[in-house]
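Q: Please design a sequence for this.
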């Protein structure tokens, strides 16, 4: 996997090549994330790298299903409410973020793109709400078919109500506990074993492996997690090193299996949607 988050995206294409792909009916995948602290052992670009990675692997999976796809330039400006007190966690205003999404979609519409699917790698509540609203509002205003693809668990946590026509949901490939991944030592949702393992597999230069192996698991309670979600100084007090999980327990192959499984699910959602067979019930896990 190339280090560059532009490799394999439309950024590395000449305009006639891009124009041809659009005329041939290529859908567009829009990667979104943020620049945000990810513990003392990883760079602040993790979300940008992983949203790009998921889009690139989803593109490969779509093409195996005879669906042509393009990847838009990764968008890494967003809202960091939870980690906002840490250096490295850039935070933009909600209106700025919405205007940016609107203008990105307007450009794609002007070039003749019909379908845009947003794949986001950043679970901050305010970021996700603003992003979903931005895509819905801009899509309607511009007249482009733009959709947010999110897990059913996230949809439940966001309490999405009303018009869901711009949201596609899928079954998450990991267990969900109060909206968070669980690892062998408790909640593992930010710069823990999952993200660390995936980064080691695909972007090893961005991880200090020796330091990761020495970090202790946070092993937080659900009450700690509730306070952490308030963000800013509250989050910094709960996780002073900037991670929530067990980075030392990372496994690169598990990270690979997770990402590849996720990308097959995402491609399946897009495929069934384009064929007119999409139904949320087919993609969201039924909790017992």
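A: Design:
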């Amino acid at each position: 996997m190339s280090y560059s988050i532009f490799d394999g995206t439309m950024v590395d294409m000449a305009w006639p090549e891009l124009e041809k792909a659009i005329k041939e009916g290529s859908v567009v995948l829009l990667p979104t994330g943020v620049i945000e602290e990810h513990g003392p052992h990883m760079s602040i670009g993790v979300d940008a790298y992983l949203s790009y990675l998921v889009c690139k692997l989803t593109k490969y999976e779509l093409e195996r299903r005879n669906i042509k796809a393009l990847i838009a330039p990764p968008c890494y400006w967003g809202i960091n409410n939870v980690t906002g007190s840490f250096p490295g966690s850039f935070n933009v205003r909600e209106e700025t973020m919405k205007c940016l999404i609107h203008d990105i979609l307007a450009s794609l519409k002007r070039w003749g793109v019909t379908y845009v699917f947003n794949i986001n790698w950043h679970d901050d509540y305010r970021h996700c709400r603003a992003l979903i609203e931005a895509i819905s509002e801009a899509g309607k205003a511009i007249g482009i078919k733009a959709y947010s693809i999110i897990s059913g668990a996230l949809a439940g946590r966001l309490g999405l109500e009303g018009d869901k026509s711009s949201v596609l949901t899928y079954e998450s490939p990991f267990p969900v506990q109060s909206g968070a991944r669980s690892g062998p030592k408790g909640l593992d949702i930010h710069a823990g074993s999952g993200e660390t393992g995936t980064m080691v597999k695909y972007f090893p230069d961005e991880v200090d492996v020796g330091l990761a192996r020495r970090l202790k698991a946070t092993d937080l309670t659900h009450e700690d997690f509730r306070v952490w979600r308030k963000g800013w100084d509250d989050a910094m007090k709960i996780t002073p090193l900037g991670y929530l999980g067990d980075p030392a327990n990372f496994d690169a192959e598990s990270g690979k299996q997770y990402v590849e499984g996720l990308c097959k699910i995402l491609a399946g959602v897009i495929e069934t949607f384009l064929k007119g067979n999409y139904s949320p019930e087919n993609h969201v896990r039924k909790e017992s």
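Q: Thanks. Anything notable?
A: Residues 26 and 68 are 5 Å apart (CA to CA). The two ends are 38 Å apart (CA to CA).
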